[in-house]
Amino acid sequence: MTDTDTDTHTDTDTHTDTHTHTDTHTDTDTHTDTAILDLGPQTRIVARLVAGVRDEQLGDATPCPAYAVRNLLGHLTGLTVAFRDAARKDLGPTTDTPPDTAVPDIAPGWREELPRVLDELAEAWRDPAAWTGTTRAGGVDLPGEVAAAVAIDELVVHGWDLARATGQEYVPDPPALRACHAFVLEVAEDPTGGGGIFGPVVPVSPDAPLLDRVIGLSGRDPGWTRAGA
What we know:
It is a single chain. By secondary structure, the chain is mainly alpha-helical. Helices cover 43% and strands 3% of the residues. It contains 7 helices and 2 strands. Strand 1 and strand 2 (140-143) form a beta hairpin. The longest helix is centred in the last third of the chain and has 23 residues, at 144-166. The relative contact order is 0.23.
């Protein structure tokens, strides 16, 4: 069993206590061991998943109860732009707006826009200056390295959401997965927090694949499957 062995699952009842927005537990006391990491491999994986979405799947359910596939794609677009601008310290409407202000949706041209902004996100975080100082995302001021950790978490977990909702294979970038695990574990163990970053932690065997453990710590059921799968 490896950290990227993601296909050993059992069907279980859908967990409905997940949320679909960037966690607000990103105060400046949060510690992260995330070293400067190239987000490019993970953004390319997400872009491939986006390319694999069929038009007829846009209304399908996702592991995020409030989101259909189209809403998840809209959320991915918005968070990608927000964390790109957070890396650039280009603060304004894209970084100041809380993610739960409205249910997101795709816009015309989303198939071209989302891969493009994913590339821009990865490029922005290749600048070491992005990981230093203070920035803002979702209306929350936070250290650059914490913003990076949240961005990685969003890419890994929402990549899983999109893959599960559309029936695609998903093996996240191993360094991104390990960084995501360190982050969600720290959030889940913080006594001042509310548990998982997206909802209450779902218990998962400590022997489960690392991705399953990340998904459980984030507040999702690793056994979630789409209807008819």
